[in-house]
Amino acid sequence: YARELEFYEKLSDENIIQKIFSFKQDGIGYIAFEYFPCTLLDIADEIKNITFIDLKIIHKQLLDALLYLEGEGVIHNNLKHNNVVVDKDLNIKIIDFGMACYIKDLYKVFKDENLDIEKLKEEYPHCSPERLIGADQNFKTDIYSWGYMLKTSSKLFVSQNQEFLYPDLIDIYEHALQVEVSARPSVDELIFHPFFDEIYNFLFCFNDYEDMKGNINNTLFDKIGNKILIRHSQFEFAIYCGCHNEKNDETVTRLLTTKIHSEKCTVCKTGFKISKYAKFKLEVSGQFFPIHILKMKYIKLIREDFLVFKSQIRLKSNPSIGLQEES
Questions:
Q1: 272 within 8 A of 191, measured Cβ to Cβ
Q2: pLDDT reported for residue 249
Q3: What residues contact residue 13 under an 8 Å CB cut-off, 6+ apart?
Q4: Superfamily (CATH) of domain 1-192
Q5: Helices (runs of H) and strands (runs of E) counted in the chain
Q6: Considering the entire predicted model, what is its pTM?
Q7: What is the pLDDT of residues 35-93, one digit of tens each?
Q8: E strand or H helix at 287, and its extent?
Q9: Can you list the positions of beta strands (E) in 158-286?
Q10: Domain boundaries defined on the chain
């Protein structure tokens, strides 16, 4: 109880469950959390009309949460469908930090050398191989669990004989499920995978469009040159068109120039895939980030309004040669 409570009191992120209050009675600890109606385990029954892009939105949020946890030096260690809650708007929160640990203070659940590993694999298929054998975990331990969740969740939409129609889906979860820890991608590499491109398809090459201002559903847009300043009651940031921005984020540069992200990877043949939107930049308080770092909460808020703004903006009379609008 005390150990788990420590994480809830330390962690503060929109994709991590928040503690309301806690108390002990008769030697037993109790923690009350914010309410969410269901877990990912029963999402298909509780929330109707779930689509394939909803699957992407959910798993992008999970990566957002894992990126936050990595920044805090925390490994969840038990990421699975019934440890993720979701509401009707597809906002997710990771719960149950009972097995979580800090990267500097690892917590090993399976320590007994006499344990039947094959039986453990059947009972805990979401657990990474290194965790089951009692080896040291790292942040990529949660990546394996994330990959298992994506693979199994996708079966709601994609039957086994249809998987060949979804190469990006197969590519991303096969990377995440690599047995060798060093062969798995990092969280930030996965965020840039083209599997998520459908989420960003509201973006387009706007450098060759006329400057203009617009107010759409109380979201202010101000297009100036190769950037669009967006002001909302909850946030303010600028998006820079990637076609005219030569300086890339370190992760983007690495993915664009490195053919194979790991020599031990059994998936990569021509190199780890990267999103066609990877060059779009986000400016917040004078700092620049790749657009993929933007939380799903904000993407969902601006997506529809951005598409309306796109329909209103006009192409310059003499646009640059060779530029193509993103579809």
A1: no
A2: 66
A3: 65, 68
A4: Transferase(Phosphotransferase) domain 1 (1.10.510.10)
A5: 10, 13
A6: 0.89
A7: 999 999 888 777 777 899 999 999 999 999 999 999 999 999 999 999 999 998 999 99
A8: strand 287-290
A9: 212-216, 219-224, 227-232, 235-240, 281-284
A10: 1-192, 206-312
